[in-house]
Amino acid sequence: MNPRGSVFSAAYALAFFTFLFGPLIIMVITAFNSSRFPRVTPWECFTTGWFNVLITNDRLMSGLLSSLFIGIGVIVVAVPVGLAGALALSELSARLRATLYTVLIVPILIPGVVLGISTIVFWGQIGRTLGGPAQAFFYNGYFLTIAGQVTFISAYAMLVFIARLQRFDATQTEAALDLGASPGQAFRKILLPFLAPAIGSAAFITLLASFENYNTTVFTILSGNTFTTALASKVRHGTDPSLSALAVIIISITLIGALTHEAYIRRKTLLDSGKAEQSAIFGNPVLRLLTHPGAVLALLLCIAGGLVWLGSKHDSSVCEAGILEEKRAIQRQLQEEQRSRIDAQKKAGGQTQTPAEGGAGNPSPFGGAFTGGLAPESAAPEPAAPSNPSPFGGAFNPGTLAPAPE
């Protein structure tokens, strides 16, 4: 093998994985640094306090509940709509299938801003037409968000079902119909069990798509907040390591789900191959139990729970107080150095006069204009008072109103 090619491949792989996982690693490190700003260096103290800051953020937590509620609503609507679209495409002719597929897939290509604004305009018009309580319902942020997200997320579910239906043998349904089953029974007992994995995948994809959507949700949620919009608002007003703590939680949940799914897939593949009894894992009861997806999930949850418990017991207040005192000492030192430089500049300039005396030693950049320059001179004579200070010639002087002597 060419040495240059090996070096290039290794360098490319290193750069690729650094680009892919580098930000995640940095966020994990910054989540445990006591610095007020997310950074790796300089390292201050190991702390788990940013997780508490994240959990006690009422705006983010209320947004999380709103996102979960909206996500469940999107699943309830988008999965059946996507399944209906996939079944309709599988039953049509090639020309009609292409036309309908284009119509159903177009919402994915429309910008989210356009979908959000059009959703508000459309349902707002319906609400104004119906009037009464219906108008308030159609102006509800949760309803508008679910309606706006379903318009394009249902297409994701449809694509999942189309991929699954391409592997379905339609003769099974035809055989059930020939044996006397109704179309509903054939659907429930044959097609629906076959689509069960696709239903789970479509539900998970729609939940993720709903949870992370921002462009459409920021318009349709109106005065409310979802987790994504609250997070974006927090970033605009200033970030802190609590967002890195959120990334750690998301990464942990993803790893637990991925490892559990991998254990399930390997076990299912081994059982379907018929070689389970010949496997050393299935021959050992302990290994067989440990490799079960449920046991893997329970073990990972126990590890995560143990780490959370240990983190909650960690106290970094002493270390943080020491770091704060060091920062104050550095600040005092800088202030003293600044005073020393100012005193040295004054001595070097030969300043001997007081600020009130003016001259070259006056530190004021205005030449002493505001240090007594406006005070009246003692030698200047006082101006004589006018004989009649009134601008009306003494017409309103009480003496002028006295009666004339007889």
From TrEMBL:
Keywords: Cell membrane, Membrane, Transmembrane, Transmembrane helix, Transport
GO cellular component: plasma membrane
Major place of residence: membrane
Protein topology in the membrane: Multi-pass membrane protein
InterPro entries: Bact_Polyamine_Transport, MetI-like, MetI-like_sf
Chain segments carrying region Disordered: 334-406
Compositional bias (Basic and acidic residues): 334-346
UniProt domain ABC transmembrane type-1: residue ranges: 64-261
BP GO annotations: transmembrane transport
Descriptive protein name: Spermidine/putrescine transport system permease protein
Organism, as annotated: Actibacterium naphthalenivorans
